[in-house]
Amino acid sequence: MSYEKTFKDFQKKINAYSYALWLMSWDSQTETPRGAQNYLNQQRAILAEEVYNLTMDEKRIEAIDKLYETDLENPLKREIELEHQNLNKIKKIPKDVYLSYRVLLSNAGLIYKEAKEKSDFSLFEKTLDEIILYNKKLIKYLETDELKGYNVLLNDYHEGMKMEDYDKFFNLIKEKLVPFIAEVEKAKFTYPKVLKEGKFDIKKQREFNEYLLGAIKYDLNHGLLKESIHPFTSGVTSCDVRITTKYSEDDLSSAIFSTIHEMGHGIYEQQTNPLYSGTTLERIRSLGMHESQSRLYENMIGRSYGFWKNHYPKLQETFNEELKDVAVDDFYKYINEVNKSFIRVEADELTYSIHVMIRYEVEKAIFKDNLTAKEVKKLWNKLYKENLGLDVTEDKLGVLQDIHWSGGSFGYFPTYSLGSAIAAQFYETMKKELDIEKLIEEDNIEKINLWLKENIHQHGAFKIPNEIIKDVTKEEFDPNYYIDYLITKYKKIYNI
Amino acid sequence: MSYEKTFKDFQKKINAYSYALWLMSWDSQTETPRGAQNYLNQQRAILAEEVYNLTMDEKRIEAIDKLYETDLENPLKREIELEHQNLNKIKKIPKDVYLSYRVLLSNAGLIYKEAKEKSDFSLFEKTLDEIILYNKKLIKYLETDELKGYNVLLNDYHEGMKMEDYDKFFNLIKEKLVPFIAEVEKAKFTYPKVLKEGKFDIKKQREFNEYLLGAIKYDLNHGLLKESIHPFTSGVTSCDVRITTKYSEDDLSSAIFSTIHEMGHGIYEQQTNPLYSGTTLERIRSLGMHESQSRLYENMIGRSYGFWKNHYPKLQETFNEELKDVAVDDFYKYINEVNKSFIRVEADELTYSIHVMIRYEVEKAIFKDNLTAKEVKKLWNKLYKENLGLDVTEDKLGVLQDIHWSGGSFGYFPTYSLGSAIAAQFYETMKKELDIEKLIEEDNIEKINLWLKENIHQHGAFKIPNEIIKDVTKEEFDPNYYIDYLITKYKKIYNI
Question: Among B240, B243, B272, which would you mutate to test the A interface (most chain A Cβ atoms within 10 Å of its Cβ)?
Answer without folding.
Answer: B240
